[in-house]
Design a protein that fits this description.
This protein is 47% helix and 19% strand. By secondary structure, it is an alpha/beta fold. It has two domains: 163 residues, 3-Layer(aba) Sandwich (D-Maltodextrin-Binding Protein, domain 2); 116 residues, 3-Layer(aba) Sandwich (D-Maltodextrin-Binding Protein, domain 2).
């Protein structure tokens, strides 16, 4: 009797495996939706449309980008977390923002348990910038000025965002204090500093470069491990301020709902890696100061968990809380 039950169980398992393999082999059989949890025009949106267009060409199935902004990206993230785990609903987002949200919001989903990482698509460092009137020439001088005048410098940022946490980490590691000026996002933060209404910010490299060229912003350092080809004269904070391991930035990642078949995750991962190697895509990313990544789902999962813990530790150590 036991042997009969075992044989029945094994037959069922084999059928399940065969069905899963068939589903993965036929994927995608209908349009794929990439949810972008921020408004149109941002890095996640641009990347989703760039990559999605090439996936459409290769697969013969439409890859549709759907913007679902709100609550610092958490509305769109919840939609994807609750979607059917069939590979037809995905999310392109700044993985850092998602990791940070876990420590700042009472989320209706688990950022680790409810998502299946697919790959990090690109990485772009932040740039530490000041208004030209701030009397410093480099990051070390800015830190010295902020130490000498606690609370005198204003830092423009969307509270709870990756650029905000970058500024919080710099202040925490160097013992400085500046006043945070809340904004609705990177564009407004940039405007406030460029017009002299605020003093300091960490901004995305792509957005900063035109303002630097026009003289409206003074760029001091990048937050990457190494200097970037798009601005080779800018030192890293590691070298400019003696801050080992100081690395922040935007990591645009593709996520699926949890429990999507591993074979479908592998198919998506391989397709993104292929697209990122196309000369026009790689060239466009490089020109904007971003690095194509395309790592494995396993590497992304480990990196995302480490990022979540890093920001959780910083929030605990600084005691930061979002205002009510």
């Amino acid at each position: 009797m036991a042997a009969g039950r075992a044989a029945h169980w094994l037959a069922g398992l084999a059928l399940t495996v065969l069905c899963a393999a068939a589903l993965a082999q036929g994927y995608p059989a209908r349009p794929v939706r990439i949810v972008v949890p921020v408004p149109p025009g941002g890095s996640s949106d641009i990347l989703a449309r760039l990559v999605g267009a090439r996936m459409t060409e290769a697969w013969g199935q439409p890859v549709v980008v759907e913007n679902r902004p709100g609550a610092n990206g958490n509305i769109g993230a919840e939609l994807v977390a609750r979607a059917a785990p069939d590979g037809y609903t995905l999310m392109m987002t700044d993985a850092g923002n998602l990791a940070i949200s876990a420590s700042l919001y009472a989320l209706p989903f688990d950022v680790i348990g409810d998502f299946a990482p697919v790959t990090i698509v690109s990485y772009s460092p932040h740039v530490l910038c000041v208004h030209p009137s701030v009397p410093v020439k480099g990051a070390k001088e800015l830190i010295a000025l902020a130490r000498a005048r606690p609370g005198a410098l204003n830092y423009a940022t969307a509270l709870g965002s990756a650029p905000h946490l970058a500024g919080l980490m710099l202040a925490h590691r160097t013992g400085i204090r500046w006043e945070y000026i809340p904004t609705k996002g990177g564009a407004e933060s940039m405007r406030l500093v460029a017009t002299g209404e605020s003093d300091v910010l960490f901004g995305g490299l792509l957005a900063v470069l035109p303002h630097r060229a026009s003289g409206r912003l003074k760029a001091l350092a990048v937050s990457s491990e190494k200097r970037v080809p798009a601005a080779p004269d800018l030192p890293t904070l590691i070298e400019a301020a003696g801050l080992p391991g100081f690395e922040t930035g935007t990591r645009q990642g593709l996520f699926a709902p949890a429990r999507v078949l591993p074979e479908i995750i592998s198919r998506l991962n391989a397709e993104i890696a292929r697209v990122l190697k196309l000369p026009d895509i790689a060239g466009r990313l490089a020109a904007s100061g971003a690095y194509a990544v395309g790592n494995s789902a396993q590497d992304m999962s480990r990196q995302f968990a480490a990022e979540k813990e890093r920001w959780a530790r910083l929030i605990r150590e600084t005691g930061f809380r979002l205002p009510n």
